[in-house]
Design goal:
2 copies of one chain form a homodimer. In chain A, a hairpin with a 2-residue loop joins strand 5 and strand 6. Helix content of chain A is about 40%, strand content about 20%. Chain A has helices spanning about 25-40, 60-65, 85-95, 130-140, 150-165, 170-180, 195-200, 230-235, 255, 260-265, 265-280, 300-310, 315-320, 340, 345-360, and strands at about 5-10, 50, 75-80, 100-110, 205, 210, 220-230, 240-250, 290, 330-335, 375-380, 385-395. By secondary structure, the first copy, chain A, is an alpha/beta fold. In chain A, strands 3-2-4-7-1-8-12-11-9-10 form a 10-stranded mixed β-sheet. Chain A has a two-stranded antiparallel ribbon with strand order 5-6. Chain A has one domain: Thiolase/Chalcone synthase (Peroxisomal Thiolase, Chain A, domain 1). Chains A, B: It comes from Streptomyces diastatochromogenes. Chains A, B: InterPro entries: Thiolase, Thiolase-like, Thiolase_C_2, Thiolase_CS, Thiolase_N. Chains A, B: Keywords: Lipid transport, Lipid-binding, Transferase, Transport. Chains A, B: GO terms for molecular function: acyltransferase activity, transferring groups other than amino-acyl groups; lipid binding.
Chain lengths: ~400, ~400
């Protein structure tokens, strides 16, 4: 049975410790907004997958109980930076399979500053899955241990530059575009506009990535109500967006043996997730109007252009420079500002992407509206690892 | 479509730091055993839910990759002590809904000694979900903060004693039975036999619970291969056990407002999960032969007898004393030794219960065999909270 997103909601993403809130406060805010947007009461929700990385065990219950105490199944799920899309993936499968007609997917994070330095949950880094990816590259490049995530992606950027002639200015152009987009997003952590020179002049985190090319640590929550065709019809719900196709992939042998940093950061996972999602939806990148993709670092937006089929491998730097991925171009990529400027509370990100696309496909995105958007693509990836690609279609 | 357990496997449960192993070593051992038991190759597995509480984000990938690098979806799930059954619940729903024909549910834990003192993942206890349950009782009883889990259950035991005349000897009889059962279980952490006097004479942890009535901290993993009817038929798989009914519940208002410690530790969740599972399976407690239930503390076995309908409320102390729940009685409860004696690696427990029941229903349980067992019931619960009841039936 077809699954639809009936409602979405999110908090503004914030620098940690900006607001006095607990994680359950942010989930109450985002979850209530999604339910109101769908026109569904919490008492109608049958199951709740909740995504987060940093909070204690069963934090999903503590948060969902703010919305109601109806005794329904709650699943706490975690897939690092792809956690939000993982909750959405479970929600869709539960609805498509007939286990439930109305599922609320929640995602949130209350992060500590600099939290991404170690294991994503602050645990022992040496036995963390990311350490395995990192170890492969450390052995090759002899680089230092802190902060590993920026190093892994910085090395992937240098590899792309060496192989294909991608420039620092092209990498900076990704960040300049996404910061510019976020100026119109009231949910974004940052709304300042920077040009390519500003981006290049910012503090270097790991060459060639400057601070303005790296997603920040963030607090925030997002939510989506996923319903069956039958439920939507019975309730005469409006504003539906179809989940036309979706796929999750994890690492393959290639990730660990090719010796390429681009493979280690997951470009092959993204490519395969996109291929499967297109196939299930009967759609291709040519059908897509608007994209929310995982620009945890500027380089990952370029790698993802290639993985999604928006350009041949090696041409992504030129693609962003051409203006093809902003307003007036072939696609608008990250109209929300992306992870770089909207912020990146790990468990919320994948659901916030879905929220932005739902607003875009309904024509409700205000100053950020992509004219005539009918098909949206969300791409959420986590080292460790998992990649999820979701195709959403206006009804 | 009906879902079946086609194969199970587990490691021996061990005191932490007994074996030199990483969490992925134990998952390789348990997962390989389950696949071999099912006669299924990892390349045939389509999705992998993995349950654990203490390891870093995406530890499930790190562990599942030991079994193969096929790029399939991996979900890391957590529901505190009910984590293992949560992985099984997702596996069943994915198979029943047609999302996959072959799902491998994994669960593991590599614990630190005394790990259950704080938030289950060692995080900030004050914002943990368990703290909320604890806070309700702390306000009522003014008790101290360490170790909360034993205090919560100890207080529930005292409440039961005061209300119904349950005795310390009856609580100890639960532990004596489960320790005795474990003598025949090569997978159990403890295999020593104790009588009621030994149990009562052991160190007091939180009155009336002595150390021999409390589940230990443990390392270990367990796994189950869940397949569709179609997959089983095509592969001519043998040794199948049907998942006849299953339900998960979480807290309701009652948990927080009744003022009863018995409600705070989840007896109402268990009762409702059992009711739903019986209804879905078209079975009742009268049809059940063998039970693996969540005896994290001796008192919880008594509370669960009542929740499952094995006796009227208040009569559970007499039930265990009557011998009705051991070999020769109406049911055999915890033939494996239960959490108290087999051990309790949080993420593995729910799947280890399923493993024991599958062996029992196939007649493969050796010296622990419950004669003629046809229907088994597993009960896995976590503060925080979630309760899962699963009915398994021999094919």
């Amino acid at each position: 049975m077809k699954a639809y997103v009936a409602g979405v909601g999110m908090t503004r993403f914030e620098k940690p410790e900006t607001r006095e809130w607990q994680y359950w406060d942010m989930v109450r805010e985002a979850g209530s907004a999604a339910l109101a947007d769908a026109g569904v009461a919490y008492t109608e929700v049958e199951q709740v997958p909740v995504g987060y990385c940093f909070q204690p065990s069963t934090a999903g219950q503590r948060a969902a109980y703010e919305l109601g105490l109806t005794g329904i199944p709650v699943y706490n799920v975690n897939n690092n930076c792809a956690t939000g899309a993982t909750a959405l993936m479970l929600a869709r499968q539960l609805v498509e399979g007939g286990a439930a007609d109305c599922v609320l997917a929640l995602g949130f994070e209350k992060m500590k500053r600099g939290a991404l330095g170690g294991g994503a949950d602050g645990g022992d880094f040496s036995t963390s899955p990311v350490a395995r990816h990192y170890g492969i590259m450390a052995a090759r490049h002899g680089f230092e241990m802190t902060p590993p995530t920026a190093q892994i992606f910085g090395d992937a950027a240098r590899e792309h530059m060496e192989r294909y002639g991608t420039t620092e200015a092209q990498l900076a152009a990704v960040a300049a575009k996404n910061h510019r987009h976020s100026a119109h997003n009231p949910y974004a952590q940052f709304r300042d506009v920077y040009d390519v020179d500003d981006i290049l002049a910012a503090r270097m985190v790991h060459r060639p990535l400057t601070k303005l090319q790296c997603s920040p640590t963030s607090d925030g929550a997002a939510a989506a109500v996923v319903v069956s065709e039958r439920f939507a019809a019975e309730r005469a719900l409006t504003g539906l967006v179809e989940i036309a196709g979706q796929a999750m992939t994890t690492d393959t042998e290639e990730s660990f043996t090719s010796g390429s940093c681009v493979d280690v950061v997951g470009q092959p996972m993204s490519r395969e997730a996109a291929r499967q999602a297109y196939e299930r939806a009967g759609l291709g990148i040519e059908d897509v109007d608007v994209v929310e993709l995982h620009d945890c670092f500027s380089v990952n937006e370029l790698l993802t252009y290639e993985a999604l089929g928006m350009c041949p491998v090696g041409e992504s730097g030129k693609l962003v420079e051409s203006g093809a991925t902003t307003y007036g171009g072939r696609w608008v990529v990250n109209p929300s500002g992306g992870l770089i400027s909207k912020g990146h509370p790990l468990g919320a990100t994948g659901l916030a992407q879905a929220a932005e696309l739902v607003w875009q496909l309904r024509g409700e995105a205000g100053e950020r509206q992509v004219p005539g958007a009918r098909v949206g693509l969300a791409h959420n990836i986590g080292l460790g690892g998992a990649a999820v690609v979701t195709l959403l279609r206006a009804v």
